UniProtKB/TrEMBL annotation:
Name of the protein in question: KinB signaling pathway activation protein
Annotated segments matching region Disordered: 202-223
TM stretches of this protein: 33-57, 78-97, 103-123, 132-153, 159-178
Compositional bias (Basic residues): 213-223
Sequence ranges of Basic and acidic residues compositional bias: 202-212
Source organism of this protein record: Bacillus selenitireducens (strain ATCC 700615 / DSM 15326 / MLS10)
Source superkingdom: Bacteria
Keywords (A to Z) from UniProt: Membrane, Transmembrane, Transmembrane helix
Gene Ontology terms describing biological process: positive regulation of sporulation resulting in formation of a cellular spore
Organismal lineage: Bacteria, Bacillati, Bacillota, Bacilli, Bacillales
One Pfam family of this chain: KbaA
Length: 223
């Protein structure tokens, strides 16, 4: 199983194209700026989504290595999702709410984002395996929210929507297409059992590496 350079290039350019087109369409509908500015803005948000995606891939592997358990790492991600939901609601209300606005009104945006993230996570888990649901949910919710933060500075609804569309489109495409780039030698997609086997082998390999390092340290101390 491998993702070669050609596939990485395909993922980058296809994501950039899809995200930019989606952002350009929503920008033109909103009538924000000229054509060039709309395209550039959409492309910038798409690039931010790409950086967030590859950053999460690194964080995910780090989390698995640190907690040494898929179940524990997933629980940690669920806790972070809950905090992110509250933060998006609370801090927007704290900084931008008027005297007659309640916090409940500021729960609409994080709720809609959560619903969308749940749908995408379900599709990801359906295409791969059930263990992919929470990581996919975390990426679509928490990572998208972090990428989205610069759009909240002015509390301009048009700008917020203009930013979230390319972010969501790009992140959805990256998440749902990544496993399809992992092809078997016969050209078929890995089965659920194969994904589980590779995941187990990865943990066992890291465990052996740690044991080897530990034994080397003991050997050096005893020498």
């Amino acid at each position: 199983m491998a993702v070669n350079a050609r596939k990485v290039v395909f993922l980058f350019w296809s994501t950039l194209l899809i995200g930019t087109v989606a952002g350009t369409i929503i920008g033109l509908i909103q009538g924000i700026g000229g054509y060039f500015m709309v395209i550039v803005t959409a492309a910038l948000w798409t690039v931010i989504a790409q950086m967030g995606f590859f950053a999460y891939l690194t964080i995910h592997r780090f989390g698995l290595g640190m907690f040494k358990s898929v179940s524990l790492w997933n629980k940690v991600q669920l806790v972070i999702i809950a905090f992110a939901f509250f933060d998006l609601m609370f801090f927007r209300h704290y900084f931008f709410a008027t005297d007659d606005e309640t916090m409940l009104g500021y729960a609409i945006m994080p709720t809609l984002l959560l619903v969308y993230a749940l749908i995408v996570a379900y599709l990801k888990a359906k295409d791969t395996n059930r263990h992919a649901f929470i990581p996919a949910l975390f990426f679509m919710y928490v990572v998208t929210m972090i990428e989205w933060i610069p759009a909240f500075t002015g509390n301009d609804l048009n700008f917020i929507i203009n930013a979230v569309v390319p972010l969501l489109v790009a992140n959805t495409w990256q998440l749902l297409v990544l496993h399809r780039l992992h092809e078997m030698p016969n050209g078929r997609q890995p089965t659920v059992e194969q994904w589980s086997k590779w995941e187990k082998e990865g943990f066992e390999e890291r465990k052996r590496e740690k044991e080897t390092k530990k034994n080397r340290k003991k050997a050096r101390k005893n020498a």
